[in-house]
Batch of 2 targets.
Target 1
Amino acid sequence: MSPIITIDGPTGSGKSTVSRLLAKRLNYPYLDTGAMYRVVGLAIQRAGIGLKNEKEIAKICNSLDIKFIHEGDTNKIYMGNDDVTEAIREPVIDLMASNVSALDTVRKVMVKLQRKIGSKGLLVAEGRDMGTVVFPEAKHKFYLDASSDVRVKRRFQERQKKGESISREKVKEYLIKRDYQDMNRRLSPLKPAKDAKIIDTTKLNPDQVVEKIIKEMAKDNN
Ligand code: DC
């Protein structure tokens, strides 16, 4: 079994914050696979290519140079020499990333890359299909979830913090749409792996979730 920890779940379940904290606590590298699909979405959007143009999309995916640069507590993401850390978090890229992630060509290239990164050993891998498809042999698998009200609230507060003027209603509409797409697509839909531990984060803060994960991992090791 590989010493990889997989953390999957829907938008606003807390998986990014928790994965980052957990990786820091264990001193493991952290892989944000959502960011990878976001970079693809951004590249396709910038190139002005339609989602049906699989040939061009394949070309873009195969030539993409995605780099994660960890500097202290900040994780920066580069597309070639371009720092796209902020650009990939724009609301318009939320849906674009979800759209491109449903394409076979895109998933093939990304999964290959993710497995290559995972082959180095220890890793906290965060996404939608980490436990089900990318690292099915991972020793520790978690699926985080929370009530939709709380997930919307978390997303809304995140947007407000960034100074974006978006209504709670719109945040809710986009969140429901994206979750629906991610859960109902043909390829690698979002769902818990059969052997994943499900953690409801509705009433927990990120540190409490990390504690729970560490406790569960200790059980796995016994
Ligand atoms: O985690 P995120 O919001 O940054 O992910 C953006 C989109 O990427 C998400 O809506 C679906 C897709 N995604 C995926 O299909 N598989 C993953 N492992 C991670 C993300």
Note: The two ends are 14 Å apart (CA to CA).
Target 2
Amino acid sequence: MPLSNSANSNDNPSGIRKGLTRYGDAEFSLFMRKAFIKAMGFSDSALDRPIIGITNTYSDFNPCHGNVPQMIEAAKRGVMQAGGMPMVFPTISVHESFAFPTSMYLRNLMALDTEEMMRAQPVDAVILIGGCDKTIPAQLMGAASVDVPVISIPTGPMLTTTYQGDRLGACTDCRRYWAKFRAKEIDQTEIDAVNEKLAPTTGTCMVMGTASTIACMVEAAGMSLPGTAAVPAVMAERFRLAELTGRRAVELAKMPSEQALTPGRILTLESLTNALTVLHAIGGSTNALIHFTAIAARLGVKIDLEAFDRLGRNVPVLVDLKPSGMHYMEHLNEDGGLMAVLRELRPLLYLDCITVSGRTLGEEIDAAPVTRNRKVIRIAQEPIFPVGGLAVLKGNLAPRGAVIKHSAASPALLKHRGRAVVFSSLEDLALRIDRDDLDVKADDVLVLQNAGPKGAPGMPEAGYLPIPKKLAQAGVKDMVRISDARMSGTAFGTIVLHITPESAENGPLAIVRSGDIIELDVDARRIELLVDDAEIARRLAELAPPAVRLNIPDTGYRRLYQTTVTQADVGCDFDFMVPAATRSAPLLKGK
Ligand code: FES
């Protein structure tokens, strides 16, 4: 067989001729490439097809991706049916509970890995298989920078099971039962029994945590096929959707470049607004705001926090899933999945946005089956919560903003004034939170410093500070808690997060002292330190420069991370990955 491929011109190479390794002789590079790949048993006719990359994020450390081998097989089947050549390649896989110091510390590394592997290898389109919280955002950040045609498919949520008749799901109920254990309401034997039940199948957390939120937002934004967000990980339908995704990837690869459905074409200001409307309407994870801010920034769209807050004032929470509601992702799937939610949100959405299927969002909503007798999706006139799930706060404690999931907070604490009980770091928190001599009362405000993007580093999900044991044992279930950390999307409580600038950057959070009074007023969108301005200025002036306080090492990934990671309000990406155009980008829209 000749080495040249008639389907490819040298001006616009595709398939196996794409991105030839530089030996100085392109034909020799192709000769070498073919020689090596034939070691895997490929024929010339297989190599003449459009090449569809499939990211393999399987890892023994990632049970949320436990179905990935079967999904890959299904996607390959679809690619082959449509005349493409599937090529599976590995990337980093990041699981929430197997990432030290925290998965967020590794998200940008996964984005870089995915991006550069898509650039380096000859792919005409790529199927992104991800699921656990940071993985889909990382993949889409990378894809946004490369701007090749990609199609995302999540691994899907776990199924639930019950313990003593109580339905359980990771990980809202992990926290609920752990709180009971700390309060001595249940003993070691019982908490061990619960531990066996919380994650009964492979797949992502089955509440409306970060993984489910991201899957819903990606479907709303048009980067995955309809139905892919909610079908449980172990159901046959998920593998049929993977097969369909494989077929569609080949069609994407065959489109002329001027019509290519790349992330830059699909993820517009309008489609990103649709995704953020969904974030409000599903009572989704606060983390998703950071991730979509990072994805949007790579495409030159700035998600302005105040615009996001205004958007939420018109969007009711319609989905009765934990932690804002009562149910689980399998119930959302039974109700018709995300498309049924979008049908209720129709007046609030930009329906003309093109999706990866080639149809508009409006067309997809119209084509989706209608489910009667729904259990968890409310109509707009009878919402779970009258306005969007997240609110953005500002004030002298958070000049660039902070976030609260008020749909999962205690209503009585949404307007609260209390005495600060300050922990200066995660280590300090671990050391003192449960001490009998800790001076703390139920109406105090727990404050955690130095848990932000640079300070921790990696902005861990430590914002859900535990209720001090002595208060938990006295029956206290919630307190106002504030920090520059993140919180798991599965958590609940009156918790103010993402305070920006973070304390390690000498934001005002750094100068809060135990005994100061803090005022939270979610209706007014305020978070204030009630200390006079002169005293605040004096305390800020006393702080050492951030570079001194951070103790950044001379070498290694940690140095790259701590010297370049941005603040939460702009997405916690590496500063060198964000195009300068984003600074003057259009802001988030809203209907
Ligand atoms: Fe992976 Fe929750 S731990 S989705």
Note: The longest helix spans residues 236-254.
